[in-house]
């Protein structure tokens, strides 16, 4: 391997004086002493800039504060940087803020100045015909010169003040070399406002991001891959993805992962996109969730977004509906999801699922589009074994499409539990078709506890299968917010615990009815208008299933006009023809 040589400036000394006399700031054309880089005494402290033909002190990695007059030095350095930034077009207030919030950058400049002072290397910074840097230059002037010589035009200091560490700021600044500092400051402020301001829904955004990662099983395109890498960086920090939208660290990682966004024009690119998203029904406060969950979307522009929306119009999802879909799953605008959409639709069409059900499933749970057709097929096969296919399969995926993303073993655990308590496969299939949400629950945390609750209120184990078969929704009803309030109300109206248990065993939908809309008005009518004892509903709890306006009231009036007394079952349990024959003397033709 060829040796790498490090240039050492040639310094002429007078025999009469030990003071170094600069001949010239050397250039490539001047004679220089050459030493192998490995043996150069300055290697660990300087690098030679071929563009400026000068020695530049390397950034110090020490975290120690400069010794001696460190406070005065740092204060002078802050002032020097602030004045330098103002010469670049930054306001005084902004420049002071940047200089005060970029301590690592300041320390790098101060250390660099001291290194050059100690080694008398300032002579290499003097141009022909110019006053030598070391001749009468004050500390502040040297810091300003050092800042200018870095060549980043103030970007490193600003990016550090925006939350980046020094090395990241230097990397990003190189990427943004063509940007003017005032323009960069405006862009960073705008982007930070766009991505990180708004309501405190950070945990929701983090939860959504984690769900997208978990349920993604197709080859990612470049945009999704970049997003996954960004999520992994956030997840590795304290607080993980829950801090996605509420942490300075997240903003730093966002800029490091997607520095290209700072090259976008705010006026001609970003603002038109924001306006377009508003036009399709997305409130501004929800946009940050979209941008944080899928940062590359900001590069697309309105025309690309319109073309991606057209793909969904082919499956019945129009532009305004897309506005509701995008916050749920921003990755639907990626190329890989757009391609997978066609495969998912084709798969369900082969399974003879109605197109309307496919569209409803996508509207309700767009995350299924991140799953491969082969993975969905595993769950569809499990449904098929229970007799749920074609139209019934359409009903299931339209109401509970999240079931498609379950692991088959989790689904089979619920099936096995229902079989243990007395259901055959056919009955389990009917329960799946009617209330698929049951199969997305935990056996231990939900189903077993619900059965224990029903037993605790007096429903016998022998009546449990019947109660669940008639109203499987019991297994996904919240005891505290749904079941207990109804039981409490019925007790207040004079029914005993045993009465309620008997009623639930015979007619389990009872506990699903609204107190204000069903139970109260029908009990009031029974007691106050029909003048019947409330105990009559114990023998016929199905009374609550009939319409008060369309059935209970009209039939009561017919019976009252004829002075006929009968129980609730005879009054309501017959169809219109049977009722007419029995109570209205209509024998038919």
From TrEMBL:
This is Transcription termination factor MTERF2, chloroplastic. Belongs to the mTERF family. One of its GO terms (molecular function) is nucleic acid binding. Pfam families: mTERF (PF02536). It comes from Cucurbita moschata (Winter crookneck squash). PANTHER family: CGI-12 PROTEIN-RELATED (PTHR13068), TRANSCRIPTION TERMINATION FACTOR MTERF9, CHLOROPLASTIC (PTHR13068:SF151). Keywords: Transcription, Transcription regulation, Transcription termination, Transit peptide. Transmembrane segments: none annotated. SMART domains: Mterf.
């Amino acid at each position: 391997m060829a040796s790498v040589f490090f240039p050492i400036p040639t310094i002429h000394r007078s025999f009469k004086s030990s003071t170094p006399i600069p001949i010239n700031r050397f250039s490539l054309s001047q004679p220089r002493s050459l030493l192998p880089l490995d043996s150069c005494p300055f290697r660990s402290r300087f690098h030679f800039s071929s563009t400026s033909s000068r020695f530049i002190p390397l950034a110090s990695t020490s975290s120690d504060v400069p010794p001696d007059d460190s406070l005065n030095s740092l204060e002078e350095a802050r002032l020097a940087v602030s004045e330098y930034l103002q010469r670049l077009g930054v306001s005084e207030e902004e420049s002071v803020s940047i200089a005060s919030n970029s301590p690592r950058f300041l320390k790098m400049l101060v250390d660099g100045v001291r290194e050059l002072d100690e080694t008398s290397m300032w002579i290499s910074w003097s141009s022909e015909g110019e006053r030598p840097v070391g001749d009468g230059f004050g500390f502040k002037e040297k810091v300003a010169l050092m800042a200018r010589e870095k060549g980043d035009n103030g970007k490193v200091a600003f990016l550090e003040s925006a939350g980046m560490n020094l090395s990241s700021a230097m990397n990003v600044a190189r990427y943004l070399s063509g940007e003017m500092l005032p323009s960069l400051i405006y862009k960073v402020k705008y982007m930070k406002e766009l991505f990180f301001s708004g309501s405190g829904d950070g945990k929701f955004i983090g939860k959504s991001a984690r769900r997208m990662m978990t349920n993604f099983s197709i080859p990612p395109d470049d945009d999704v891959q970049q997003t996954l890498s960004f999520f992994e960086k956030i997840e590795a920090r304290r607080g993980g993805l829950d801090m996605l939208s509420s942490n300075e660290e997240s903003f730093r990682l966002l800029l490091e992962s997607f520095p290209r966004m700072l090259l976008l024009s705010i006026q001609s690119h970003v603002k038109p996109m924001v306006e377009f998203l508003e036009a399709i029904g997305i409130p501004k406060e929800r946009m940050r969730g979209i941008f944080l969950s899928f940062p590359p979307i900001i590069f697309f522009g309105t025309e690309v977004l319109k073309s991606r929306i057209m793909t969904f119009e082919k499956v019945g999802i129009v532009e305004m509906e897309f506005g509701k879909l995008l916050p749920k799953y921003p990755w639907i605008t990626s190329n890989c999801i757009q391609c997978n959409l066609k495969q998912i639709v084709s798969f369900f069409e082969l399974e003879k699922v109605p197109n309307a059900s496919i569209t409803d499933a996508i509207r309700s749970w767009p995350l299924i589009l991140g799953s491969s057709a082969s993975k969905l097929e595993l769950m569809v096969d499990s449904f098929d074994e229970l007799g749920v296919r074609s139209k019934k399969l359409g009903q299931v995926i339209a109401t509970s499409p999240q079931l498609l993303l379950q692991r088959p073993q989790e689904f089979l655990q619920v099936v096995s539990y229902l079989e243990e308590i007395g259901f055959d496969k056919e009955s389990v299939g009917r329960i799946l078709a009617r209330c698929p949400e049951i199969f997305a629950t935990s056996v231990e945390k939900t189903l077993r506890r619900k059965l224990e609750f029903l037993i605790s209120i007096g429903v016998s184990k022998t009546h449990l299968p019947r109660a669940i078969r008639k109203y499987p929704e019991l297994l996904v009803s919240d005891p505290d917010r749904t079941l207990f309030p109804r039981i409490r109300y019925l007790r207040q109206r004079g029914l005993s615990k045993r009465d309620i248990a008997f009623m639930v065993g015979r007619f389990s939908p009872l506990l699903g009815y609204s107190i204000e809309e069903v139970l109260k008005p029908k009990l009031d009518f029974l007691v106050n208008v029909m003048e019947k004892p409330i105990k009559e509903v114990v023998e016929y709890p199905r009374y609550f299933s009939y319409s008060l306006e369309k059935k209970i009231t009209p039939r009561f009036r017919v019976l009252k006009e004829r002075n006929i007394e009968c129980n609730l079952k005879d009054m309501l349990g017959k169809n219109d023809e049977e009722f007419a024959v029995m109570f209205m003397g209509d024998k038919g033709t």
